[in-house]
Design a protein that fits this description.
With 387 residues, the protein is of the alpha+beta class. It has two domains: 187 residues, no CATH class; 182 residues, no CATH class. The chain is built from 14 helices and twelve strands. The strands form two sheets. Strands 1, 3, 4, 5, 6, 7, 8, 9, 11 and 12 form a ten-stranded mixed β-sheet that branches. Strands 2-10 form a two-stranded antiparallel sheet. A hairpin with a 2-residue loop joins strand 3 and strand 4. The protein is elongated and about 95 Å long.
Length: 387
Amino acid sequence: MTLTRLVISNIRRRRGRSIFTLLGITVGIASFVTFLSMGGNLKREIYRETNALGANLVVIPKGSCGYEQLSVLTGDQMPTTISSDEIGRIRKIGGLSVLPFLAQKSAINNRPVSVSGVEPAATKSHKRWEIGAGEYFSTEGAAEVVSGAAIARQAGVLPGGSVTIRGEQLPVRGVLRETGGRDDHTLFIPLAVAQRLYNVPDRVSFAAIRVADTSQTESYIEKIQAEVGLGVVSDKQMLKSVLAIAGTVNLTLQLIAAVAVLAAAFGIINTMMTATYERKREIGILQSLGAKRRTIFAMFLLESGFYGISGGFLGTAGGVAASALLSPYISQNAMTSFVKGSGTGSSIDFGMIAGTMLFSTLVAIVAGLYPAWRASRLSPVEAISYE
């Protein structure tokens, strides 16, 4: 009988214990992969939304922290302290294209949705929107709604219908063609209408700025800060700040999952140590038949490795599936809205899958080293005389 067949035979003889040991490593790896996969999706969404914003600079309220910068990308509700006068003073600085936004929240059928007050013509040109159904705003100040594609599909916000925002019923003028970003989950209304509905006259949440000469970006930041007194970040600075926040959250989740993997490793140690004591007589017989210590060591290590490979495969598959299934149901806020994503689903990272399989196998092998060493150190007489 070959060593591999002997290992398989030993695992099959103790099916109950083997199944529970395998489940332990499977659950641990599945948790690890789920958080790792969501973290990867989170970073991809951040990069995509930064590019979709199409701005070299973002003007935010003075003293704003990274959370407000994150809200710019997620469309979450923000403080409305920037005045129209300040936006006008920024526009007087040459070489800048300024696009103000009012970021607020509403609800459709008790489901929270993002509402964005925009300058219709300028925003359409800046973001290169296309209309998927109906028409765009009839005028700059029309009390109408243009819906993102995902909201239209999920909540039935269709041209010819209406939505109620802050107690006022507004007709739905059109639906944007799918962008693949947060715009798909947003209701857009003219800026003046949004300011009236949310009772913030002449106020906006932030402004996206495109500069004519990117080599002068730092100079523009200094001018805006000095002449207007608002906070300004470049797209690179904002990306770095948001990724730092996301990285901290992602690391915390992975550490939690690592605890589950560690618990599974101790489960393997317990199983293999029990097997060492239960199979002393078998070890003694093998030694009497000429099996060397390294053969006994390899036999137990192979058995431990089997749990790692099998648990890694099942856990990786389960983790990828869980991240794809659970992401759309995560409660939306300024951080998890990225994980929730834009409906594009979870992409499969084969590098992550290979790395996780290797990690699982290594954890199992390391967990099996001590039991394998103990089994190989038994003397033939001690082993064969065990009752």
